[in-house]
């Protein structure tokens, strides 16, 4: 079992790399550049050497993935202990800086500019990168001359060196807005020029001995609005063909949008399949009670799982740092969407002017077409620091995955400030947990039932601004275990928020699943709040 993946924290404005994610995949080297096609050049792409032109289409890529699935998986060889990549640090990796003048499509007005990542210790498996023009694909030929780096840098002598990924640059080349690097991970920095959580091509057996499919080849094509990214995915259990139409959202709150289509071919059965997987980090937050493992009030780049079910119910599930690996499944049919969301945008609640957790983008998946029956899974893994991505959310279809199964899926992935509006119900904006009982004297442990906890859930929305304290608005709360007391609902003085409040006790060392919402005259006035309380 692994908690995170090989990745980096990239502060775009500073153009530097700093370590930020755990290495979860052993480094491995793949094909050498020896044997690549003889260099050629496409004038509109740039000055770098490209391979010979070959026809390309998404249908061809699907056929290639289908044929690969018929053969056993051949993993890339692991690097020898003496391989220079073994000893490469993040600082060494950061010394290899792609030359701006070698950007793909640099001299094409209005085109999306692309820079490439070299291999590194945590990205030891090279990927093939192609450019597409007029239906013809040419492979970008690796050479260390594409990078500014010290004369004694390991990549200058590494015989099997290659590319590890790529990034799409913002206008002017000061920062990037989308990057692909490591396994099948990719992420956007929009809308506030700050990276946070990541998406993946596919997740397999998350929270168990996990399999990490990886994108082994990319094809890049200008589409007028941004970039169309094609990718070939491979692992022990599956192959896949991906098309990701990627662009930035203009106007409003901005952000990035990707229309994703994938066709998957399974070599072997899979117990837990994750479609459209999202990953994020939650160390601690306002729902962590008295725990503070750091001087900052909160440390997380997502604070909840947002669900929009096929029946139209809006659900908010605050995430938490659990004492053990926990998987929660939310059964659904024809889901409208789900996402890992960072709702708290108040800098005062983080106090971090280096990593800017208040600016981390939220991620939202909107199914395109009928996804049928299945469930959204939330896997939460315990962590003791902020360097591990310990939150994972994905869709698992009801269909059993066996050898020979083929799945075609389409969805839209948004990177933005929040998920879609909650419509006619209020949105939950805070969950706080403390000792049970009332404030003041009852917080004296002599007057508080041992083990009792108080839950305070804040909600805001236009529908609540019209309600009065004694106008019939009340909290509906249920639990699978224990005793609920002290249930109240009231407007928070000096704000436009309402607060749900209750105590939970008598768990007897067991976990409890909680559910609460605001209601008036039988009509829900808020999202449904769902939480798992540990003893």
Automatic annotation (TrEMBL):
Q: Where are the transmembrane segments?
A: none
Going by the UniProt record, its keywords in alphabetical order are:
Periplasm, Signal
GO terms, biological process = beta-glucan biosynthetic process
Gene3D superfamilies hit by this protein: 2.70.98.10, Immunoglobulins (2.60.40.10)
The answer to whether keyword Signal applies is yes
InterPro entries per the UniProt record, alphabetical: Gal_mutarotase_sf_dom (IPR011013), GH-type_carb-bd (IPR014718), Glucan_biosyn_MdoG/MdoD (IPR014438), Glucan_biosyn_MdoG_C (IPR007444), Ig-like_fold (IPR013783), Ig_E-set (IPR014756), TAT_signal (IPR006311)
Q: In which pathway does it act?
A: Glycan metabolism; osmoregulated periplasmic glucan (OPG) biosynthesis
Q: What is one term from the GO cellular component aspect held by the record?
A: outer membrane-bounded periplasmic space
Q: Which SUPFAM superfamilies match?
A: E set domains, Galactose mutarotase-like
Span of domain Glucan biosynthesis periplasmic MdoG C-terminal: 56-532
**Pfam families given for it?**
MdoG
Instruction: Please tell me whether the keyword Chloroplast is annotated for this protein.
Output: no
Give this protein's Gene Ontology molecular function annotations: carbohydrate binding; catalytic activity
Any idea where this protein resides? Periplasm
Family statement: Belongs to the OpgD/OpgG family.
Q: What is this protein called?
A: Periplasmic glucan biosynthesis protein MdoG
